[in-house]
Amino acid sequence: MLENLTHPEKLAKDGFTTIENVYSAAEVEKILGIIDQADTSKETFRKSADVFAIRQFLKEIPSVVEFIFTDKLKSLIYQLLGNDFFVVKSIYFDKPETSNWYVPYHQDLTISVDKKLELVGFGPWTSKQNQFAVQPPIHILENITTIRIHLDDTDERNGALRVVPKSHLKKIYRPETIDWSMETEASCSVKKGGVMLMKPLILHSSSRTTNHKKRRVIHIEFSNQALPAELNWSEQLFPPGSTNL
User: Fold this and answer.
1) What's the CATH number where 16 sits?
2) What contacts 182, CB < 8 A, 6 or more positions away?
3) H-run or E-run covering 72
4) Is 191 part of any domain?
5) Residue 68 CB-density burial (10 A; 0-12 exposed, 13-18 middle, 19+ buried)
6) Distance between CA atoms of 126 and 129, rounded to whole angstroms?
7) pLDDT band at residue 128 using 50, 70 and 90 as cut-offs
């Protein structure tokens, strides 16, 4: 029996969904033009032969915010998530044409916060370049939804994500325990200007590039939960026009 799920239903049931034509070709080129003009000498910028990344992307390049949060994206956020969700993390990834960067199956188990504190249910902690990440209680991770904005055509030949559908429903699921006789794998191809939504607890991986084509993606995580009073999200931004402003 074929299932015809809406995007909210598919996101809840399978842990991911893809939506095409969220941005026009001109809108994508405008975003890329702003990124190309950024000062890449900052500590939050990482550059190697295999990947170029900008952490705290929307904070580091604030001029891009209005071009990311188009009416179409804001409508999508409000329809799929609600009008009280805000950004808690953003990263820009540029996987070059010759990249050998392979990412094995994993879950996204940490959040970015402003300081390190001893709090019940929070840990382990990591820090890099004065940025702090911690694994929070599971209900905080379950509440997060990631939107990945694709600035290039992406398929399995240039690093499209592969996921294990429904694995987000299994809480912490160690990749070394995957039973492939019971699980399936899906490749998440997305055209330029499309988006992929996913739950951070879904098992996902990314292959090496084999077709000599770029894969540039903007990764934005959303939540509507406050952290304990002593702790703050390191990057918190309400979409322009949000009722929370």
Assistant:
1) 2.60.120.620
2) none
3) helix 71-80
4) yes
5) buried
6) 10
7) confident
**Token pair for 191:** 């055209």
| Within a domain: 132 | yes
Rounded CA separation 85/152 (Å): 26
pLDDT tens per residue across span 71-124: 999 999 999 999 999 999 999 998 876 666 788 999 999 999 999 999 999 999
Residue 3 inside a domain? The answer is no
Nearest to 148 by CA among 23, 24, 45, 242: 23
Which position has the higher pLDDT, 129 or 78?
Answer: 78
> What digits encode the pLDDT tens for the residues 175-225?
999 999 999 999 999 999 999 999 999 999 998 888 878 899 999 999 999
Return the structure tokens found at 223.
Answer: 């939540």
Our count of domains for the chain comes to 1
* Structural domain boundaries enclosing 143: 11-37+45-223
- 243 part of a folded domain: no
